[in-house]
Amino acid sequence: MSKKIISVFTAFALMLTLCSFVISYPSAAKRQENKIARKIVYNKKKHNIALSWPAFGSSGNYVITRGGSRLASDFVPVGSTSKLTFTDNKPNADKYENYYKITRNAITIILSLENQIFGDHMYFYDRKHEKAETARNDINSQFSTIGLSGPNGEWTTKRQAYYFKANVDDQTYDSGGSGSASSAEANSIELGFYSHIGGLGKVPSAVKLGSVFTRPHLSGGANATCTFWRSMENVAVMRDFAWTVSQSTSARRMLIESTSKYISDIGDTNFWGSGGFIADTHYTSSRPNWGGQQQWYTRNAIFPSGSGAMGGSYNMVWQGCVNPPKADDANSPIPVTPMIREKPFLFIDNDGEYKVFVPAWQKDRAGVSWSSAGMGEGKIQDLLTGWYIAKDGDTDIEINTALKAGKNIFFTPGHYALNAPVQVNRKDAILLGAGIASVTLEPTEKNTWGCIYADDKDGIIIAGLLMDSFNSTTYQIRIGDEGANADHAANPILLTDITCRVGGVQSKNIQIQASMQINSNNVVGDHFWLWRADHGSQRGGDLRWVRDRCKNGLIVTGDDVTLYGLFAEHYQEYEVLWLGERGRTYFFQNEPPYDAPNQASWSSQGGRVDGYAAFKVANTVKEHHSIGMGSYAVITGTDGKVNKKNGFEIPNSPNVKFEKMIITRFAGPGNIQNVINSIGGSTATGVKRVALYNNGTGIQPYDEKFDLPDRESYPAYINMDK
Hints:
Blueprint (H helix, E strand, L loop, with lengths): L7 H7 L13 H10 L1 E5 L4 E5 L9 E6 L8 E6 L3 E4 L10 E6 L2 E5 L1 H6 L3 E4 L8 H12 L14 E5 L24 E2 L4 E5 L8 E6 L16 E4 L2 E7 L6 E4 L2 E2 L20 E7 L11 E8 L12 E5 L11 E4 L2 E4 L4 E4 L5 E6 L2 E4 L12 E5 H4 E4 L5 H9 L3 E4 L2 E5 L3 E3 L5 E4 L5 E5 L8 E3 L6 E9 L3 E7 L13 E10 L7 E9 L4 E10 L9 H6 E9 L5 E8 L6 E3 L4 E8 L12 E2 L4 E2 L4 E3 L5 E12 L9 E6 L5 E13 L4 E5 L11 E7 L28
């Protein structure tokens, strides 16, 4: 490609005054003006495509060439004009396989239907028109140039998703290579912060990638404890899948044909990570190794035969898996997943149109939800007719208006500043982000209530969204109002790949009461990371304790709530507070707040108990069951004398039980003094485990009255029943 040609993704950063294709828009009116100025229209009856664009360059005709994809190997001439419009009467048969370069005076812009529909931060690859290495080179060039590969990438506002169209004629996206995914010889795709890879086929084998690596930036690549905010789904990996990650990362609906490891092998020290999530995935040839991971949650995966260990140090939960490791202190195989609905995903159907597949609810499942020939149980929704496609710059008014009109919301990668919460107030409504970290809902100064309020309605799905707060809010996300009491057993509410973040970026003081509150009954949560940031772009220590304030990560008041893969860290009071009946949690990971300055500022139960338990089941609860629970001390308190009495607290009741609990200390002088209810031993003398606590001999916590958010916490117009 000529050096004079500048792609749409770089040209407009240099020529904002010349055209209207910009990264974010100052107003809805300005966006509409821009849409009119740069437009592509497909006429199905005539099978032609009309183009229009804003003036750029100083003289001469606009030269139009066409390729089958953004990075197609060949662009062919289709016309030349002095006007700002052009009609292609013989486009390629598939309307989405028409990308037009319009060139004048060594400046080139690109127009396509896909860019017009999905915006600037979704990148599409098509092996039919591109070389095998094209996608890899494009993704890796962004990884290395836009700040996603280093520590500064943790706090960027950039979001991107990479979508691969199905292979044709046995082609793959593998450009060849050998060895570990972390080696240069492997020719791996490297996926950075706030990035998502998705396959657009019906089944994972429809999109075959070569090798994938997530490169840590700490300790020379040996430390993955801050490798956050990235995701993959619905693809096959042919050679090596080195998913070197920690929290807020998900790999779903994957076919792994070969893998050598699950953690980095670079660096000159022992490598380690701090947990992650994988689900609905089939390993066909080799059993992976989670060596170096402190903990991990794996759900509904199929492994080659065997039951030998696959790594992991403290808390490894294998739920609904085929051929999991044997049970031992660190490993907890659970035969089935009692109630699950997989995350919806974008794909291209047989008619060539973009659709969303919404999987069905399944009970007591082992193994994956799909087969080599079939998508699995579920329903297909047409994206263009049934959904509102939100883009960077859209407001809460536009999003809420679309929801009220009966549309579901597909959030393209972006940074959404809201003046009021997104209000999900109808049955079966879906909010779907393009990747777990590709959408940030960030309240502005005018929004003091939160990011998402969902009403107490059947079948709501909220998936793949990161909630940020740059100012004080009551909640970040709330499910059901304070009086919620409906029975959703026949059609539960699903929350999947949800991240809530308090602090890390903003410099001003904020106060949030709870990152998430679940008031509705029959809610299923499938992978949360609720995080009051322990580090960030601003100074920490005592300053963080008073600047980034949030009492609770999760409050559950609803009954029959089931959570799979719960990560909650660093909140200032009970990090998980459970008041509903018949709750279940499968896997829990926690670190207490690092930054409590002294014991007086961090004591619970009327000041009678040091610190706050990581997971607290209220004394009023009669029935509860959780398994695979870990809390790890990094308590650095300013005076060096801050401790926590209990990792976990539950009532001494016949039908309340916790299984497979662990506590240990990673750093700092402070200790967790007991595993649960004053028994189990202190981290001062190493790792402590309790296999089962059920109506035990430990000391039941004091009775408490909990200070919960209420209707006075937010304005009257936030009425979810309307």
